[in-house]
Every structure is written in structure tokens, then in C-alpha cells.
Amino acid sequence: MAPDERNDRNSNGPMGVLPAAARLAASAWLHAAERTVGASLELGSKLARAAIGQRGPEPPSAPRPAAEEPSSPDGHSEATRAALREWGTELLAQSADVAQADELHPAYARILENLAPDEARILRLLATGGPEPAVDVRRGLPLVSELVAPGLNMIGAEAGCRYPDRVAAYLDNLNRLGLIWFSRETLRDVNRYQVLEAQPDAVAAMREAGRTSRTVRRSIHLTPFGYDFCEVCLPLHAPDGDGEPEPEGERGGETAG
User: Fold this and answer.
1) Can you spell out the DSSP letters for the chain?
2) Residue 132 parent element (H or E)
3) Nearest-CA neighbor of 193 among 247, 148, 257, 139?
4) Could you read off the pLDDT of 198-239 as tens digits, one per residue?
5) What average pLDDT does this structure show over 19-34?
6) Total domains present in the chain
7) Chain-wide mean pLDDT for the chain?
8) pLDDT of 236
9) Which is higher by pLDDT, 184 or 86?
10) Could you tell me if residue 191 is inside a domain?
11) At 175, which CATH number?
């Protein structure tokens, strides 16, 4: 039999058909396996990057993965919001527990870290002596006046501050911490304002303001929170750093009128 005839017979017979079908099946299986392995490798790579805090580049329009937690506009995840809500719920539960022992306010330690030594002296002055007078110096008519010198006071000298030129900044910080507040009300003792208005800085401001100068009387107080802070954190009745006891009660009990 000729070689060509043997080849034709083998390609058309059962033995010729079987290898061809096997080759097709093997080829299809190989392509499917390649796709599966590729997808698995890609997924594994993403999981590995996520595990070490890295994310591969994604196109801008890529959809958010289903496992990623949605974030609020300020960047906090829902898990963080849930944790904060749980914390708040615990605080409410503690406030309703009559057996819960009273504890110091958690802000006291942070406030002490934010106080200068002179600011502690100012707080002690307000806690033991009561509110302090302050005046604004203005020029012009009452309805169209101009501010020349705001918030003049004698707190630096009265409290014995080491840096009296920083008193304005000290008071701003104490107000920021919620320990003092600036009132538009005047104190009952007008003599204290007269003494204040006779101080050199007040006299200089009045002179600068000219013929239409005038003063607006105000006062500086501890807040209720500030009183409690001073009672807990400051040695109000102990001697100061110079070894001399602080005067107590000279202006105590004075309120704005």
C-alpha cells in the first residue's frame, strides 16, 4: 500500500479522529486554565498589596470594591463612626448609673498642659478675689465711636505675673480653654474702675483719643467650669512662689451689676 493511502486511511478512521478531538479538548482546557490562573494571580496580588497597606493603580472609573468600607465626607469610615457612637453610648450609660463614682473631668490634665505659670496666677486671683474690672478706651460719639485701647486691666500687677506685657495673650488663652469669660456688665464697686482709669496706660490711651475720649467699663470673670478647675487643680490658699500667702477675700463675692 502506498504511503499516501496509509495516511488517508489513518486520518479518516477512528484512530485518526481520536487524537484530533483530544488535541481540541486539551487546547480548550489549557486556555481556560491560563485565564483562571491569571485571575487568581491578579486577585492574590491585590490582596497582598492590601495586606501591606498598598493599592495598585486603578483607572479613575474603577468601581469601589465591595469589601471596602464606605467613608463619610470628612474621611472617617463607618467603623470609626460606629466606635465613637459606642463610646458616647457608654458615657450615657455611666451617667445613668447611680453607683458610678464621681471622677475628675477628663479635660483637667490637658488644660494644665496648656497653661503658662502666669496664667495659673491669674486663675488663682480670679478664684480668690472675684471678677476683675476692665475698660475700653474709645473716641467719638457713642454711636459712631472708635476703639483706641481695648480691655485695659490691672490683672498682671494684681496677680504678680512675671510677664505683665503678655496678659492680653494669657486672657485670650484662658478664654479659649473655657476658664474665663469677658462680660459687658460692670462691677458694683465703681472705685475699682476709678483706680484703673488712673493707671498710666489708661491715661495715655485717653490722651491719644483726644477731646472725645471716653471709657466703657466691663469685667472679667471665671466661668463655672473655671471655678471647678481652680478648686480641683490649684492650691488656692497656699503660699505663692515668693513664700507669701495670697490675700483672700478682699474682693470676694463681688458680682456684675
Assistant:
1) --HHHHHHHHHHSHHHHHHHHHHHHHHHHHHHHHHHHHHHHHHHHHHHHHHTT------TTPPPPTTSPPB-TTS-BHHHHHHHHHHHHHHHHHHT-TTSPP---TTHHHHHHT--HHHHHHHHHHHHH--EEEEEEEES-GGG-EEEEEEE-SHHHHHT-S-GGGHHHHHHHHHHTTSEEEESSPBS-HHHHHHHHTSHHHHHHHHHHGGGEEEEEEEEEE-HHHHHHHHHHS-TTSB-TTSPBPP-SSSTT--B-
2) strand 132-139
3) 257
4) 999 999 999 999 999 999 999 999 999 999 999 999 998 766
5) 52
6) 1
7) 76
8) 86
9) 184
10) yes
11) 3.30.110.190
Domain that holds residue 133: 108-233
> What's residue 35's pLDDT?
56
Whole-number Å distance between alpha carbons of 54 and 151: 55
The residue type found at 51 is A
